[in-house]
Design a protein that fits this description.
With 171 residues, this protein is of the alpha/beta class. It contains seven helices and seven strands. The radius of gyration is 16 Å and the shape is globular. It starts with a helix and ends with a helix.
Length: 171
């Protein structure tokens, strides 16, 4: 019983590691994937990044259904290992471990984030420095401060998704 309790506590601590880095694991709902596809105007061969990718389910869906090249960056060891192992069966999905602030995002056509508001300001600076001129950014729930989104779409529950282009970050 002691061993099982220890394993359970360890798993909970590792799963919540993302919360320490301002990114608790809250997965994007599967029924919202197509909304994101339409907002980003995803086309086969584009490079889609998910910062804080969790189990990577959206990445696997996009690669399978829309032939999108996908990169997920995850800081939780358990979620990373789960998605990394699953990615072995998806040639268009790459899962990387670590803090997304330390990864190069310059090749991304589209970046997706579902993170806490206080994280977004710091990311905005990283996006301004690293992204290509016409890279797109989709943010779930909270807008970037002092930036005008190109588009706002809401799912059937009223949860907003904000679309930005890098050029809007420079205004």
């Amino acid at each position: 019983m002691y061993f099982l309790t220890l394993i359970l506590i360890s798993a909970l601590v590792l799963l919540s590691l993302g919360a320490l880095f301002e990114a608790p694991w809250i997965p994007t709902r599967k029924k919202d994937y197509e909304l994101i596809v339409k907002m980003a105007k995803l086309q086969p061969g584009m490079l889609f990044y998910d910062l804080g990718s969790g189990t990577g389910e959206m990445l696997f869906y996009l690669s399978r259904k829309h032939n999108i090249n996908c990169v997920g960056i995850e800081i939780s060891p358990i979620l990373y290992l789960y998605s990394k192992i699953k990615s072995l069966f998806y040639k268009k999905v790459k899962i990387m471990y670590g803090n997304f602030y330390k990864h190069d995002l310059s090749k991304a056509d589209v970046i997706y984030v579902f993170l806490m508001p206080k994280t977004l300001d710091k990311l905005k600076r990283k996006f301004s420095k690293e992204l290509k001129k016409y890279s797109k950014i989709i943010i779930s729930c909270w807008p970037l401060q002092n930036c005008n989104p190109k588009q706002i779409s809401k799912n059937d529950d009223g949860i907003p998704y904000y679309l930005y282009e890098k050029t809007a970050l420079l205004e």
